[in-house]
Each structure stands twice: as structure tokens, then as C-alpha cells.
Amino acid sequence: MKHLLILGTRGIPARHGGFETFAEQFSFYLKRRGWEVTVYCQEKGRGCFFEDDWNGIHRVHILVARALEDAKGTIVFDWKSTCHAARQQGVMLTLGYNTAIFCALYRLKRIKNIINMDGIEWQRDKWSFLERTWLYLNEKAGLLLGDHLVADHPEIKRHLAGFISKKKITMIPYTAPMVRSADAAYLNQFHLEPGKFVLLIARPESENSILKIVRAYTAQKRYMPLVVLGKYDSKHYEYQKQVLDAGNDEIMFVGVIYDQTVVQALRFYARFYVHGHTVGGTNPSLVEALGAGSPVLAHDNRFNRWVAGEGALFFGDEQTCDRQITKLLQDDDLVAKMRVASKRRYFEQFTEDKVYGAYERLLGEYAD
Asked: Fewest C-beta atoms under 10 Å: which of 39, 86, 238, 243?
């Protein structure tokens, strides 16, 4: 039986982000295909580790004294996970290159390791100089230490190919479940009606253009709420305070929602989805919007242009965002056409069979 070990996420079930969701869903896919799958999970606590099985997936829980959100704790978790995995039989799939230097251990033991290189992480605004230096150096370590690399976007592949051979890189984007229907009753808790709200889902960071979007939305009366998902803390984070202060009675900050049936209903029934990410490759939340058939208004950059396709609308500055929002709130025919375009783009590139199938074929070459 082929055995895959997945490292680099906080673990499953998914509660934190795109990598965790991918690890969970891809594990189930491989399990159905006859693979044995192990996922490493970060747990707060003291000690070494413990193991269990969850829905047929083997989990190794690594105990770290620091909080899950703590960067130093994540480094400790990655090191302990790598040391444990290096004693196992199988092929490694490392999600992200933040601690790629640790993959030298696999090289020493001649263990095959595939690295998903994620976005160009060291370019993000949120990192300090030292953090950017660490990430930059680990990106270069990943290029050298990975047996093969996965780029989740053509532009990421182009970036990586500036340093190594294209033959060592396979472009495989993210996927998301196709949402064909949803229970509108999930909207009741927010006092929303189908097609009568706009949706924004993103981490509250400046690189995701949230302040720009909120200011554009409040530039005039919309007669329709903008629903914003995410955890906002005005006491400890200045940018989040600015976003909250920019809102008005048409901006609904509903916090973090972990129940995916609720989130899918919000995506499915939103009039359109606003995506402000400015860096990275294929962002999972944008793919999820396409999979739900949601019309997309996205920040205009090379990453979003490829993912969302020609059927989306784009904005660069606050004024353009304001105009595009107005257009989408007024033009029902345009919204209907964009909904069809989102579904078409999803089927062209991002279905689960295409993405997971590509991963399985690649991993199978190294598992034999």
C-alpha cells in the first residue's frame, strides 16, 4: 500500500486555512484510492506526541507548549514533525516552505519529499525584516531540498523557474467542492435574504485590501449589506481598528465561521463576492467562490486575473472598486452572466478530480 505523510499544516479536521482544508479533503480522496495517509497535527501541550485515527486517516499529534498562532511554536512543531516523519516509510508532501531547511533531514535519509511552495510568502507586508529574511532563505532551501516542487499558480511556477529547471516544477492549483445548492435557512441567523447581500472573506491584513473595500462600499448608500467574515480585534491591531472604524450600518462584521455548510450558503446566495488579495498564488477562498458560482469582483493583479478568468470584474484603487460595486448592485443581467462565468471557470481548471488526480499521479511517481 502506498503511504503519504502530509506535513506543514496545523492538522485535521480543518479549522484554520486553505492548507488544512486541502490536507483533509485530499486525504479522504487518497484513502478512497487505496492509499495509507498520515497527517501531522499541532497540539498545545507538553510532552512528545500521541497518535490516533480519524475517519480512516492516521494522525500524529505533536505537542508544543506555545500557542498555535505563535510563529516560534510553529517552527518547533515543524522540526518535531520532520524528525518523526523521517523515521517512517512513505513519501512526504510538505505544504509550504516556511521551514524548508528542515527537509535536509529527508535528503540525508534519501526519503522522497514533494514541497508545495505556496505563494511568495516573503513578499507579504505583515512580516518584519528578520521574518522576511527567514522566509526568503527557506524558499531557496526548498528549491534545493525538495525532490519535486508544486506551484499552485502559473506565475508561481514562473517565479520558481527563475532559479531551477522547469522540469522540477509541476503547476497544480487548489480545488474546492462544487456547491450546487445550499439551505437558505442558514442565512436567517444573520437576517439575510438570498441575493441581497455582498460577501467578503479574508484574513484581516492590509495585503487583502479590506480597508480599501470597506471604504469603497461605504462611499455611498448601497441598500444592501456587505458581510465580512474574519476575526477583528480593535484593541490590539491598528489595521483591524481602521477597518472597523471605516464601517457603517451596511457593513456586517460576523466574525469567524467554522461551519462550512454556513459559509457555503453565504457564498452560494451572495449577490457577488469581493476578493482583495494582492499577493500569493491561487487563493483557496477565490476558488471556493467560483465553485459556488458566485460572481467575483477581485483586486486586479496577475494572480487573481488567471484564477477568476475573463468573466470577473476587477479593481485597483478605491474609486474603481466603488464604481464596480455600483455596477454589480444595479445590473442584474451582468450578475447573472458572471455567475455562469464563475461556474465555467471552475470546471475549466479547479474541479477536485483534476486537482487531486494531478497530485496523485505526481506523488505516485515517487511512491513506487
From this structure: 238
Question: Would you call 238 helix, strand, or coil by DSSP?
Answer: helix
Residue 332: Cβ-neighbour burial (10 angstroms; 0-12, 13-18, 19+) = exposed
Q: Left, alpha or beta for 87 (phi > 0: left; psi -120 to 50: alpha)?
A: alpha
Tens digits of residue pLDDT in 298-313: 999 999 999 999 999 9
Percent of the chain's residues with pLDDT above 70: 99
Q: List, in sequence order, every beta strand (DSSP E) within 226-349.
A: 226-229, 251-255, 272-275, 296-299, 313-315
With cell 484603487, the residue in question is 317
- C-alpha cell, 25: 479533503
3-175+351-367 matches 184-349 in fold:
yes
Beta strands per DSSP E along the chain:
3-7, 36-44, 49-54, 57-64, 91-95, 113-116, 148-151, 169-171, 198-201, 226-229, 251-255, 272-275, 296-299, 313-315
How far is Cα 318 from Cα 345, in angstroms, rounded to an integer?
Answer: 26
Could you tell me which CATH class the domain 184-349 is placed in? alpha beta
In this structure, whether the domain defined by 3-175+351-367 belongs to CATH 3.40.50.2000 is answered with yes
Predicted pLDDT at 1: 85
Give me the residue spans of the domains in the chain: 3-175+351-367, 184-349
Q: How far apart are CA 209 and CA 299, in angstroms?
A: 8
